[in-house]
């Protein structure tokens, strides 16, 4: 009996280390995008339909005062594809260009407020911005010079109490610039880049030796410390001055213009921002990957309630827990990068699937739609093997989260014996949902589906243009 | 030895079943609801909705309850151990109830 139990355990666990990654984007060929709403499964009493297709890297939606839907196309995708971002009006399934931006995407989010659109420009080439766009298409920058040229970008915005709230992603995976950033493409463009703390920090003096990717000489090594440029070592007790704008933070400026203020920091990639019915600000955080000089393993994406002035722990905490708990199996121990913590780290509202890339968020405010005061979150889906290994595709769906209990449930998923994007399942369902938005009535939930983004076996991103779709979920009961 | 192969065969058949379940909003007992909350806290991120992700699927796992409890307590492979000071005996009991309830949910159409 003991032998059987032992063999059973071996069978069940059959060595994680030897199993290959089966990420959702790890597909061969270039599939055409098919659309079939019957391939998406929802709870009883809801139906889904596609309302626009052929969009180029769509990322977010907004509605004007008449309830007309608008969508933004990012203008940039991982895989170093640069295009001009656009604001499009959707009428009867057709799109009309309202405004065209510069090749400084990705445009990641949009809000409509008092007859103007506010757009978060990621800033991959020249830094992040918050743009104001008139209905006539005139673009002006409300905020410029945000960190956005690294791994993560400028996100948001949402408007609350006369302020534009927006977020800046971290420059790196876990605080240290490394060869993974050269693979992203930006390190050679901007070798001086590194993370910027929002307040003064004191370093523990942790350094990381890696291949020197900025020179051609074989065998060259680089030693890099936290919050410093690639190839610059740190010393214990070294103070890095904090400043605004910083990376990995939620910031705000008055809608009418004025001084930028820090709301919260110590976040890795705060992507989706939304205000709940009771006026609280929530943020989804894309958690650390198994890559670079300081890989973290098994870190779930997080839904946070944002408390003014709080430090959320990055790069020394994830999910509100110390990084030592996220050591790669068989890898070196993880030590804090900061000598002193910057405050008590809050507890997450919910911890979501590892590598799910939990992105855009909105709240149901309508009893008719159901799930009132629940958060709906678009899960873009894993980017394995670049982010780390997964045993099956993760994400590629919409989940709803009860923010009181932290319980997550599937809301919109692709049918099939296995999960994953439609391109992998050979169906016409969801590909990579990147954001969700209720219309002003609250009766319909719109899903922005980025389209196909393949991953090669060596971890490169290959987006397929013009495969984005807008889906609309309605109540049938 | 014969019994092992029988078990192996049954296990393989079981694991060939889908781990995926319908997006449901069924009501559950207080124990199951509590188990769900604890599952969300400790298990969900690697086994989302009982499906495979970073870790293997649980909804179609043929392992009996005592094996699963053993694995939770002692960890195995890449899975960390969760001792009684992290997940109490009562919480683990409720997590197991929740996992059973997930198994019983309607399967997704293929």
Automatic annotation (TrEMBL), chain A:
Keywords: Signal. It comes from the Bacteria. Residues 1-21 form the signal peptide. PROSITE patterns: PROKAR_LIPOPROTEIN. InterPro entries: 6-blade_b-propeller_TolB-like (IPR011042), Quinoprot_gluc/sorb_DH_b-prop (IPR011041). SUPFAM superfamilies: Soluble quinoprotein glucose dehydrogenase. This is Uncharacterized protein. It comes from Chitinophaga cymbidii.
